[in-house]
Design brief:
- The complex is a heterodimer of chains A (about 425) and B (about 425).
- Chain A is mainly β and about 425 residues long.
- Chain A has a single domain, classed as Porin (Beta Barrel).
- Chain A has 6 helices and 21 strands.
- A 14-stranded antiparallel barrel of chain A has the order 1-5-6-7-8-9-10-13-14-17-18-19-20-21.
- The longest helix of chain A has 13 residues.
- The N terminus of chain A is likely disordered.
- Chain B has 2 domains: about 300 residues, Rossmann fold, CATH 3.40.50; about 70 residues, no CATH class.
- Chain B has 15 helices and 14 strands.
- The radius of gyration of chain B is 25 Å and the shape is globular.
- The model of chain B has no long low-confidence stretch (mean pLDDT about 95).
- Classes of the chains: A mainly beta (about 425), B alpha/beta (about 425).
- At the A-B interface, helix 3, strand 2, strand 8, helix 6 and strand 19 of A face helix 1, strand 2, strand 13 and helix 15 of B.
- Chain A: This is Long-chain fatty acid transport protein.
- Chain A: It comes from Pedobacter caeni.
- Chain A: It is a multi-pass membrane protein.
- Chain A: Pfam families: Toluene_X.
- Chain A: It is found in: Cell outer membrane.
């Protein structure tokens, strides 16, 4: 009910406007995919929800299903209910375009074309007859890749941000009864950040100064879930993925400034970024043998992201900065459907609505977030009994948002759309 | 058949998302409203000419606020805009200051750049510049007071005005107001009156030839100027006078900073003695303003006649280095009176008004503009140039946007604003 009231129905006509005339466009885009760089986009602020191709095609829902090996991420408790063991690997090239127009200006600026390529891989072992199963997952639950032109109007706030956290999660899943499974995994997070901006100090040649902050973080967390098959036939899943605070120690601060100021600039920095906890509840409905419906609600504990602070080793000219973010918790609602149309072919579709954790006055051009509508579709093709291919396509429409940032004064309207095709291959035994 | 279906599905899904890859913002169509910008003229003093860093030179002229406004007016029917540029070979114009670095105490080291001056050989008491011949839209004349605009001889007394006139000094007889209105125009900006009080203030109130223009005379001349400029139905914009006491020229050298510098070697010194405009000698207080050139004059504490300068009642700091409390009150009083006149004339004539007094107070107090921290701090504040009174290109761009906003709100036009991040602040070595 909540979902219905929030979805803006006017988005739907876009779906019908399929025209073959756009084919040359697509060719260009496919080409640019191939040229793309390995960076990431985001799905709710800098959270990325592209952890399995089947689930992505179903609006990102899957907490209440024992669908495939990606249950290692979606619900470790459901892993012990998987009928087969398997291994899968996938990729979701992500094309994200943001428009910005400063209030009062007639110029619309766009971010650069960059393709992010989040990868995901899962494996599930152990005898399906046993109560205890093992799994491992590698996925990218957080990331961001926003590259603006070096001379755009918001350059003194950010020119580019590349952020990614790859989680590696060994998992145990135990069927405590025939209908109830629990599971959990330790998460080892490998984080990377590269933030660049212009500095309003003019060099002798008239160019502006720049700063580049680069660092790595290695941190731990966990993921746990419970999966229940009820007598009514509905399956239920509840999961919690813990917060991981990515801590960068001694990251490189590279300032390109006039010679007269070089000695006053920092060379190292420390920073922390909370990668928030996510609590999910999901339901699975099975109206027929061939049809599965998944409904998920995610609650992302963004309120921990209060500020983005940089602690520099030399404060002679650049003070330590504390940029307020003041995010609040935000929910996402997801519905997906899968139809096993033929023995070999499964069709999938989904819709989701993700609420922004970013409050008024805190929207920044590195993550120009707003409430967003997600539409997805996909298919699964069983090439043989053991070998499967899954394809997905996700379209995200982030609402236009006109904001004046309270920290930087940057005032204007953002509008973002993302286009994310994906493919995965699985082998089952 | 089946694979054909799959291909079609993939294609459909891909095209669905790619159909409109670039997110679109609502179209903006700039309009001219009730004004006509086909020939815009800018009437004013140094601020209008693009004067900065203690001189008028090519780069400053290229970053004058009228030129910025005129470029933006082109989106709504604005015509060509001619500035009396210095030639490339004479790009240093009248000469100007550059920042050479910082000394061991961190004090800025300024030097004069005068390799390519535009000074005419054989200049006498009035420095004359290479004549400009060609169209004129920017009539900004550094140094001109409102009190000068009806004087026929002024073309022989100000080299910046003389270079615009066809006749060599001392043969000029055309008053400034006649000259600027001689050719038809459709829109004007007038920012005059600053020098009617600035000369008094910057000379510490000590120059008998540079006293404030009487208030009644200011009011009479302002009406004459506006009546003349509007007599052929042209529309326009006028601006108030900024508070010179808020500029770095009067706030960089403070009693506290002078005492701190002296006490390094003479810890017992508690007072700095000044000669007031009224001729009294007394210890300086925080209400007295030392002028910026006192910093580099290197006089304080240097014995003259055996007595350290400024540190003893018998050898006080000369009145020309100090705008004492009473003189500062005169400056504030005249500035307020002039601004009351400007506001009432603008209202009576239905002209757009830029409150430059309020604008520079607001930005001078510290403000974030598209991620740039600006303030009235000398050098680091980024909006005031090296002379401490005139603006940097960034400062002038902020002024240009305020003119644009004011014109738009008065005449219902939608001239786009300029991107202030494209303009430099203080240039560092």
């Amino acid at each position: 009910m909540l979902i219905k009231s929030k979805i803006n129905i006017s988005y739907f006509p876009k779906i019908n406007r399929i025209s073959i005339n756009n084919y040359p466009n697509m060719k260009k885009i496919v080409l640019s995919f191939l040229l793309g760089l390995p960076i990431l986009g985001y799905s709710q602020s800098f959270q990325v929800n592209l952890q399995g191709q089947k689930q992505t095609a179903m609006g990102g829902a899957g907490t209440g299903l024992a669908l495939d090996e990606a249950a290692v991420f979606f619900n470790p408790g459901a892993v012990s209910f998987l009928k087969k063991n398997g291994v899968q690997a996938g990729i979701s090239p992500l094309y994200l375009k943001t428009a910005f127009r400063e209030n009062g200006s007639n110029i619309t600026e766009y971010n650069k074309d960059k393709i992010a390529t989040p990868v995901m891989g899962y494996a599930v072992f152990g005898s399906p007859a046993n109560r205890l199963r093992f799994g491992i997952g590698i996925y990218t639950p957080f990331g961001g890749a926003m590259h603006w032109k070096e001379d755009w109007t918001g350059k003194f706030t950010v020119t580019s941000l590349d952020l990614q956290a790859i989680y590696i999660q060994p998992t145990l899943s135990l069927k405590i009864t025939d209908n109830i499974g629990i599971g959990g995994g330790l998460v080892y997070s490998l984080g990377k950040v590269d933030l660049r901006r212009a500095i309003p100090i003019t060099k002798p040649n008239g160019e502006i100064s720049t700063a580049k902050l680069k660092g790595d973080a290695k941190d731990f967390g966990w993921n746990a879930g419970i999966y229940v098959q009820t007598v009514s036939g509905v399956s239920i899943g509840v999961t919690h993925r813990s917060q991981i605070t990515a801590k960068v120690k001694g990251g490189d601060a590279i300032f390109d400034v006039p010679d007269a100021l070089r000695a006053t600039m920092p060379t190292k920095f420390d920073a922390e970024l909370p990668l928030p906890a996510t609590t999910s509840i999901g339901l699975g409905f099975y109206p027929s043998d061939k049809t599965t419906i998944a409904v998920d609600v995610n609650w992302v504990h963004w309120n921990k992201y209060k500020e983005l602070a940089f602690d520099y080793d030399n404060n002679a000219r650049i003070p330590d900065t504390k940029s307020p973010r003041n995010y609040h918790d935000a929910a996402a609602f997801r519905v997906g459907i899968q139809n096993q149309t033929t023995n070999r072919l499964a069709l999938r579709a989904g819709i989701a609505y993700a609420m922004t954790p970013v409050g008024k006055g805190y929207v920044t051009p590195e993550v120009p977030d707003a409430d967003r509508l997600l539409l997805s579709a996909g298919l699964g093709f069983k090439a043989s009994e053991r070998f499967l291919i899954d394809l997905s396509f996700l379209y995200e429409n982030v609402k236009a948002r006109n904001e004046t940032n309270i920290e930087t004064g940057l005032s204007g309207e953002f509008k973002t759309a993302a286009y994310i095709p994906g493919i995965s291959f699985s082998y089952k035994w | 058949m089946k694979s054909n279906f799959i291909y079609k599905s993939i294609l459909a899904v891909a095209i669905l998302g790619m159909a409109s890859c670039k997110p679109e913002l609502k179209d903006i169509t700039p309009t001219k409203g009730s004004a006509d910008f086909s020939r815009y003229i800018a009437v004013g003093n140094s601020l209008t000419s693009g004067y900065a860093d203690g001189g008028l030179f090519l780069e400053g002229q290229q970053n004058s606020y009228p030129l910025m406004i005129a470029e933006q007016m082109k989106a709504v029917g604005g015509g060509a805009f001619a500035t009396p540029f210095f030639k490339d070979s004479e790009a240093d114009g009248s000469g100007h200051l550059v920042l050479k670095g910082f000394d061991a105490k961190g004090l800025p080291q300024l030097a004069e750049q005068k390799d390519r001056l535009a000074v005419r050989p054989g200049s006498g008491a009035v420095t004359l510049f290479t004549k400009y011949t060609g169209d004129l839209n920017n009539y900004g004349v550094p140094g001109i007071k409102l009190a000068h605009i009806t004087a026929g001889v002024y073309g022989n007394l100000n080299g910046f005005y003389e270079r615009m006139l066809p006749t060599d000094a001392p043969g000029n007889t055309t008053p400034y107001l006649e000259f600027v209105t001689a050719k038809p125009y459709t829109f004007f900006s007038m920012w005059l009156g600053n020098n009617d009080i600035l000369g008094y203030a910057s000379s510490g109130g000590a120059n008998p030839n540079d006293q404030p223009t009487p208030k009644a005379m200011f009011s009479g001349l302002y009406n004459i100027a506006v009546n003349k400029l509007t007599e052929k139905e042209a529309k326009g914009v006028v601006a108030t006078i900024p508070d010179v006491l808020s500029t770095p020229y009067f706030n960089t050298v403070t009693l506290a900073s002078l005492l701190a510098a002296v006490q390094v070697s003479a810890p017992t010194v508690k007072d700095i003695y000044i000669k007031t405009g009224a001729g009294a000698t007394r210890p300086a207080t925080a209400q007295d303003y030392f002028v910026l050139p006192f910093l580099s004059a290197g006089l304080l504490g240097v014995p003259t006649g055996g007595i350290p300068y400024g540190l003893h009642p018998l050898n006080p700091v000369d009145s020309r280095w100090v705008l004492d409390k009473d003189e500062a009150a005169i400056v504030a009083d005249y500035t307020n009176a002039y601004n009351a006149t400007i506001k009432s004339v603008a209202a009576a004539k239905g002209l757009a008004l830029v409150d430059a007094y309020a604008l520079l107070k607001e930005y001078g107090a510290g403000k974030d503009v598209n991620g740039i921290r600006v303030s009235a701090a000398f050098i680091t504040g980024n909006i005031f140039s090296l002379d401490g009174i005139h603006l940097t290109p960034l400062g002038y761009s902020i002024v240009a946007n305020e003119f644009i906003r004011s014109i738009n709100s008065k005449y219902g036009s939608s001239i786009p604003i300029v991107d202030v991040t494209k303009y430099r602040g203080v240039k560092f070595p």
